[in-house]
Design goal:
Low-confidence stretches: 1-6
Strand order of the largest sheet: 3-8-4-5-6-7
Strand content: 15-25%
Structural class: alpha+beta
Largest sheet: 6 strands, antiparallel
CATH superfamily: endopeptidase domain like (from Nostoc punctiforme)
Mean pLDDT: 88
CATH topology: endopeptidase fold (from Nostoc punctiforme)
Shape: globular
Number of domains: 1
Length: 156
């Protein structure tokens, strides 16, 4: 990266291990809606934003304010659209540690939760009322994966 700190300035690509290490560095951060401050508070999007900052040194875009029910209200894949502006889509059956997982919490709703895969069967995420944790990618979560994205410039 250059000192300018924009996406067009990416020179060094993070590897998957550095993304997983960065995600695990957020474990224990309390849940706080719309926040993205390691150790102080974050939500699921704030976790992904924070890991991006950890590996690239900047954020690709500032998210607009959002309510807890934003996905249900807009009925659009807003989270996936934003991820697609900055990350590479990955087939669900090809996901690897370091990828960002987007979940739809019910069949008829858009994806509104995200996590970072740390092993083939574990993920780091921030879930309402709970601190950031590394948890099992259980069958319950696995069934709800709607989209997968890779951080840019990774060897996929």
């Amino acid at each position: 990266m250059t000192a300018a700190g924009g996406p067009e300035d990416l020179v060094v690509a993070p590897d998957r291990t550095s993304i997983v290490v960065a995600a695990r560095g957020w474990v224990g951060t309390p849940y706080h809606h719309q926040a993205s401050i390691k150790g102080a508070g974050c939500d699921c999007l704030g976790l992904v934003r924070g890991v991006w900052r950890d590996v690239y040194g900047f954020e690709p875009e500032a998210p607009p304010p959002y309510s807890r029910d934003w996905a249900e209200t807009h009925r659009r894949e807003t989270l996936a659209e934003a991820a697609a502006r900055h990350m590479a889509p990955v087939m669900i059956d090809a996901m690897q540690p370091g990828d960002v997982l987007l979940f739809a919490l019910n069949e008829r709703a858009p994806a509104k939760h995200c996590a970072i895969l740390t092993t083939p069967d574990r993920m780091v995420h921030s879930y309402e009322a709970h601190p950031v944790a590394e948890v099992s990618l259980s069958p319950w979560w696995r069934r709800r994966i709607r989209f997968v994205f890779a951080f840019p410039y990774l060897e996929c």
